Every structure is written in C-alpha cells, then in structure tokens.
Amino acid sequence: MKPLGIGLLGCGTVGSGLVELLERSRDHLERRTGLSPRLARVLVRDAHKPRAVDRALVTDDPEAFFGSEGLDVVVELIGGVEPARTYVLRALDAGHSVVTANKALLSVHADEIFRRAHRAGVSVGFEASVCGAIPIVRALCGGLIANRISSLVGIVNGTCNFVLTRMIEDGLTLTAALEEARRRGLTEADPSLDLDGTDAMQKLLILASLAFGVHPDPARVRVRGIRELEPEDIRAALEFGCTVRHVASADGAELRVEPAFLPRAHPLAGVRDENNAILVHGDAAGQMIFSGKGAGPLPTAGAVLSDIVEVAARPGPMFVPANGQAPPAPAESRAPHYLRLPIVDRPGMIGLIGTVLGNHGISITRVSASLTTEPGRGNVKILVDAVDESTLSRALEQIARLPVLTGKPVVVRILA
Ligand code: NAP
Ligand code: HSE
User: Fold this and answer.
1) Of the bound ligands, which one is closest to the alpha carbon of residue 76?
2) Can you tell me which atom of ligand 2 is nearest the CA of 103?
3) Is 150 helix (H, G, I), strand (E, B) or coil?
4) Is 199 in the pocket of ligand 2 (CB under 6 A)?
5) Catalytic residue among 203, 293, 381, 408
6) Which of 67, 75, 69 is nearest to 40 (CA)?
C-alpha cells in the first residue's frame, strides 16, 4: 500500500466533508487504488475552532504547514482568490500536485496556475470546481475530447436551483429557502455569489474554456441572478406551462447566466433541489446530459478525493490549456420571452402595451393580468413569440415612455 499524505488548506464545509469521506472510504480506496490517503497537515484560519480532525495536525501558520513532512498532494479548500492563489502557487513550486474546488480562483488565474504546474511537472485537479459530484471536467477533457462541442446549457449553481425548487414546490420565500441551503452546506461563504450569478459565471468560464479551447472575456458574459424574480413570476411560469431555473449557457460565441422559463418537457425542467445538469452538444456524440448533485459537503468531497487519487496516480498535466484565441463576437439571440410589466391599473393600459409590441412586429401568445396589494397598481404578464433581443429592448424602451409602468419590467427568456 502506497501512503499518500494530504496537506489540506481549509477545513470548512467541503474540507470537513473530505475528512469524513477519507475515513469512510479508506478501505475501499486502498482496495481499488493501492493508495492509502491520509491527512498530513491542515491549515485553517482559526486553529482553536472545534473540528473532527486530530488537533496535532491543525495549524493556522502557513510556514508550519508548508514546512511539514509527508505532504504529497495539497488540497485547496479555502475559496476566493487570496490567499488561495499564493498557497496554490507555493505548493506547485514546491513540487506538490494540487487539487482545488475553487472556481473563483480558476476562472481568473487558470493560465498562471497551469503554467506553473507544467513547469514543476505536477498536476492540478479541479473536478470539484464545477458542478460538484458530476464528472464534467473529465468528460470534456477526456471522453469528449474528439468532439467539437457546439453548445453547453446547464444548471450549474446548486444553491439557486435549491432556492427556486423550494419557492416553487413549497411556496418558501427566497430568504427562507436560502437559509435552508446555507444549513445544508450548499452556499458560498458569501451567498450573494450564488444568488447574483457570479458563481455560475465562474463555472461557465471554466466549462467554456474546456469545451471550446478559448478564453472567454468575463466582461462579455451576461450575468443575471435570481433576486429579481418575484413569487408572481414563479406563479406565472406555472400558469404558462413552464418552470423557472437559473441557467448558464455557452455556444462558443455567447455566454449567458440568467433565470429562464423552461417548458415542462425541457430536459433541464425536472432538475430539482441542489442537483445540477448540463446538456452538451458534440459533433460526434450528439446531445448528452450529465446530471447529479452540484453542491454539498459529501458530493463535492467525492470529486475532490477522486482528483487526489488521480493526481497521485498520474502526475503530469490534467488540463488541455486554452489556445488563447478570443471567441467570435456574439450573434444576437432570438427566443420567445416572458415579460412582467408593473402597470397602473386603469382601463386601456394593456391595449397601449399590445400596440407597441405589435408595432415592433412582436407577436403576443399569452396574457395574464393581476392586481397587486397596492391600490391602483397591477402586473401584466405576457408571453411573446420568438423575437430578437434588440427588437424587444426597443419596444420596452417605447413602453417605458408611455404613462403605463410603475416599475422596471422583468424580462425572462423561454428556452426551447
Ligand atoms: P468554508 O466553509 O467557508 O471553509 C473555508 C475554510 O478555509 C475554513 O476552514 C477556513 O478556516 C479556511 N480559511 C479561510 N480563510 C483562510 C486563510 N486566510 N488561511 C487559512 N485558512 C483559511 O468554504 P467551503 O464551502 O468549504 O468552500 C471551499 C471551496 O470549495 C470554495 O472554493 C467553494 O467555492 C468550493 N466549493 C464549495 C462547494 C459547496 O457545496 N460548499 C461545492 C463545490 C465547490 P476556519 O474554519 O478556521 O474559518
Ligand atoms: N455554492 C455553490 C453552488 C457550491 O451552490 O453551486 C457548488 O459549487
């Protein structure tokens, strides 16, 4: 049996999951891999916090950590950019392969990290950085390498999916659903990274660079979170035969992260709770769907531990670097849309809106109206047929100039 010493940077939600899983799967891993992984040292912020780890291994001193005997693989589970970046580079320079679940770090510093790993002749495993337990990194870098990938569409943030599922199925408020997600260890340390779409954007940047071999410009990703959605939008989706999901998509040219209405038959519509799923379209394989738990201590720890075994068994680059070409300029998206327009509750208002949409050649397919709790105010909810986003924006600008709206419209794409 070959001993494998793990230096663990960070022992919070995922780190504790890894500690539990290491204990639980030791015999199994030894039988299957011939490796005997064990914690060699643990670096945390507060060494006095109670945790289920041998106290003698825990330190809050980076020098003591990096000076430890018996570190084979260094696992970074601190999160964020610094000091995670500095520690990862230091580990690589010292000749340790690194495993990380840190998409915030990789979405910005992957090139630097993989160059340093290459120079040192060691590996970086990052399966857990995207979609938790789903082996999508291995699929894109391995099983699908012969395919030209034309598109990726998926649910890549477990927290948003959990929150939306609980709002839809149990009528919870966003705040109550988020608290439950936090309790289950699904959220980022700062949950606004989940709710505002940043976490999904970071994952999409990693997926797009693996799938298309390009470095997408983060500034060109259109990012929206789920906070703009009201219970009224969720009810409207159901009324119109759809569900609401937070969707990330990339087709090589355009990268988007946004709430979307999905018709109930859509392959992503049934993905519930903290599950993630990704539809990948490859020229040889056609369409494939990968799904499973996208967040949580144990599902994520499973991906981390599989990377630990992989980098120990096969040191050397695990990553196909992007070729550096920028993707082509985005083509304009054309799709059916859901609109919720907060309006003054007076006769003729819906007619005025319908006229502007009609004048822009936008065809209405469904309409529903409701009063709000405030007297004299209401919401009109409209489904429109496939329309270019620029045409829709021009129509909405014109509607905004009418004496009709009482607030900002909510506009959501409907995915086919
Ligand atoms: P977390 O619960 O906040 O844990 C962070 C750990 O890092 C804690 O043990 C903390 O120490 C330690 N730490 C923080 N700052 C430090 C510093 N300056 N020096 C040394 N240690 C420091 O985070 P998490 O949820 O486990 O997430 C870890 C990583 O996994 C993140 O990159 C996250 O995006 C990623 N991830 C999370 C999930 C998930 O489901 N939660 C899934 C996939 C990927 P103390 O314990 O002393 O505070
Ligand atoms: N906070 C992240 C999520 C963790 O909810 O998807 C998994 O990356």
Assistant:
1) 1
2) 8
3) strand
4) yes
5) 203
6) 69
Ligand at shortest distance from the CA of 301 = 1
**Long-range contacts of 85-92, Cβ-Cβ distance < 8 Å, separation of 24 or more:** 85/109, 85/112, 85/113, 87/9, 87/43, 87/62, 88/113, 88/124, 89/113, 89/116, 90/66, 91/7, 91/66, 92/116, 92/117, 92/120, 92/122, 92/124
Question: Are the CB atoms for 57 and 40 separated by under 8 Å?
Answer: yes
Q: Among the atoms of ligand 1, which is closest to the Cα of residue 102?
A: 32
CA 198, 200, 201, 205: dihedral to nearest 10 degrees? 140
| pTM score of the predicted model | 0.96
**For the segment 262-306, what is each residue's pLDDT rounded down to a tens digit?**
999 999 999 999 999 999 999 999 999 999 999 999 999 999 999
Q: Please tell me the number of Cα atoms within 13 Å of 412 on its side-chain side.
A: 32
- Contacting residues for 306 by C-beta, under 8 A, at least 6 apart: 127, 135
Ordered DSSP codes for 48-70: TS--SS-GGGEES-HHHHHT-TT
Ligand 1 atom with minimal separation from the 14 CA = 26
Ligand 1: residues with CB < 6 A are 10-15, 43-46, 49, 77-79, 83, 101-103, 128, 132, 185-186, 188-189, 295-296, 300
Supply the DSSP symbol for 405: B
Q: Is 203 a catalytic residue?
A: yes
Q: What is the pLDDT of residues 345-402, one digit of tens each?
A: 888 999 999 999 999 999 999 999 887 767 788 999 999 999 999 999 999 999 999 9
